[in-house]
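ASSEMBLY PREDICTION REQUEST
Request ID: AP-0331
Submitted by: J.K., bench scientist
Number of chains: two
Total residues: 870
Priority: normal
Notes: Please return the full assembly, not individual chains.
Input sequences:
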Amino acid sequence: MTELIKVGLLGLGTVGGGTVNVLQRNSAEISRRTGQSIQVVAAAVREINADRICDTNLFELTDDPVSIVDNPEIDVVIESMGGTELAFDLVMRAIANGKHIITANKALIAVRGNEIVKAAVEANVMLAFEAAVAGGISVVKVLREGLAGNQIKSIVGIINGTGNYILTAMGDEQRDFAGVLAEAQALGYAEADPSFDVDGVDAAHKLTILASLSFGMPLHFERVYTEGIGEITLTDIQMADEFGYRIKHLGIARHTETGVELRVHPTLVPKTHLLANVNGVMNAVYIDADAAGSTLLYGAGAGAEPTASSIVADLIDVARHKQSGLINVPILGFQNDQIDDLQVIAQSEFASAYFLRMEATDQPGVLAEISSIFAGLDVSIEAITQKEPPAGVNTAAISLITQFTDEAKVLKAIGKLESLSQVSGAVKLIRIEHF
Amino acid sequence: MTELIKVGLLGLGTVGGGTVNVLQRNSAEISRRTGQSIQVVAAAVREINADRICDTNLFELTDDPVSIVDNPEIDVVIESMGGTELAFDLVMRAIANGKHIITANKALIAVRGNEIVKAAVEANVMLAFEAAVAGGISVVKVLREGLAGNQIKSIVGIINGTGNYILTAMGDEQRDFAGVLAEAQALGYAEADPSFDVDGVDAAHKLTILASLSFGMPLHFERVYTEGIGEITLTDIQMADEFGYRIKHLGIARHTETGVELRVHPTLVPKTHLLANVNGVMNAVYIDADAAGSTLLYGAGAGAEPTASSIVADLIDVARHKQSGLINVPILGFQNDQIDDLQVIAQSEFASAYFLRMEATDQPGVLAEISSIFAGLDVSIEAITQKEPPAGVNTAAISLITQFTDEAKVLKAIGKLESLSQVSGAVKLIRIEHF
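STATUS: Completed
Returned structure:
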């Protein structure tokens, strides 16, 4: 009665190696849960003789990934090699060969997911990617199944551990961006080329997937408005703190009356909100749903073991469903003919509250001049502060927060502010989220 | 191709009525997700003409619950009537009639679940109870599926909203227990007879279910060590605050080398921990798993809509799986022949850190005497404070926290303390959790 599920791996680095470790260590528990055995039969790697984090004695190593996706013995292919070119070709070929696919590759799903989903539906195979978003957190399952009776209103996440580590350390240790980034690279929390994390691309990949699962829309990575954290200074963090906020790099997907907002940017979050207290490399996703209300899922967003936890959960789903031959849960959580290409809202249509910061000549009347610009655009200022300049400096730092308003108005105000003779340099804009 | 799932309700109060409302409001979304329609065909109620929170025009109302469980047209029975006697008989009869069962009744599952699970397995029907634990939070699904590749080490939850509301308000508003309880009753957050919530019985029901799902053990409500919050005073909360802790009513299930701890009691939680910041009626469950690491699930623990969210999720699971005729996920998350009757650890074998508080004569040498009792039992004191008594009072309040140690030693120390002539009255013990 015990069935055997045979697995082939594409890639045996952190994610693939972690998966082998969890499968081996917890094989008894997995059999107790599924009544089945899951066995890795082969893994494709770039260098056969490289050092590994896992034991490779129990399966075949090959440097030919095509041999994995063509192997008739293999039921499930785990793609953990990364990238969107070779990985795409291999996944498509595996699907054509009738294999179920599990991947941790957020870029692949975000950028080429629509094609892959279509192929998987046509081939009647499962395509699972719990590990692609927020590591060990079961957010894909909660959106596709746990909240399936809800209309999802918004999903707001800290979904890039590296960025959250940097912002947390800047605030806790009162250090600047460059110093913390260098330290994060030394500790292995940030890549040598940190741009995917720091520029928000990784978070935008994950947000693309979350939005699709929340609202039943196609994957539209190219439509995500994305700002990184590279411009956030210690002064921003200090001024936000004085207003009662912490700065977090958020991914935000929100269903509004006019469409869907998809945006990734640094954001002021009230200090008392749970998301403001998600620190270091941890991830969290905050979901607002019409029946369940507000829920939060928190956990490790990356790392060999948490990512493997999600891959193995997907494997167990495949094992549990394989016997029936029916795919019960649609790939994007909605029936494939019910995916709706919702309007994605342009930046010019965003609405939010805003934090603005600028340097201005320390002379009488400057605050009045600034205030009148906002009043003329019908934007209410919630609070404004002016810091006395240090001795010998003749510009003062002025920070303000607005009430909820149209971004277009705030951008117009910034144009006017920057043309004032008293304001020097650019005006910094950071959005504020209230939940 | 659209299939119709026909539902019968036992009870149409907060939970049943909320379920009808969510099914009606979100019927389009549910069809988009499942490709099927879910229709309530009949509901059994005590009083046909009572006021309802939902529209009852689209289905039959009856005062004969047996007619629901015997109705050959009905696929799924939702038990939302409460209690463990009539509800048990009706659920067993529905199972015998081949109906799938969804229930929000934690008492029923915790107290009679082993019999019901056995019957459901034999009849090959689904038995789902996401709504029985932590309202709209998908913790049952996360334990049975999302973390299925893990060995669960512990699960610690704030799983009774009423108790959390009372403790939160006592701390925030510096009020005493009786006053806050009376207010909670007036606001509808606490029942007229609050004993299920205040005494910890409701939390113990939920902990029973969580432990079974986490460790693959039978439901053993009768073995849960349970303390309520009725003895917690404002002074306890204030002293805990000075040591850096908040007091939360926790359910704790922990797999140790010698067995499983199952306990519900007031607990000191470090202020910086996320669980210490779960306030008011909100619930949260903190899970420590070997691969995923620490994860937290947070959300509304009760109320018509959050509870309905979980019931409808279970309905969608039934709808999605019904076509295959195969039950993919076992009821308790482990194969039915793999449920293991783990040893439940007795209070005498508990180990923890402890907060103790006592009144002692304000005379020299009393701290030395107290300290020597702990030293003689090899228990390390982490911190100790003595409050000067107000004028005219000659006993001082002494509070201390111990390091992690055996509860048996601490109970022995309390016996010795209470026999000291300088100590008046009982010594208060509250356990401390570090995560």
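REVIEWER COMMENTS: Chain B has three domains: 3-136+304-338, 139-300, 350-432.
SIGN-OFF: pending second reviewer
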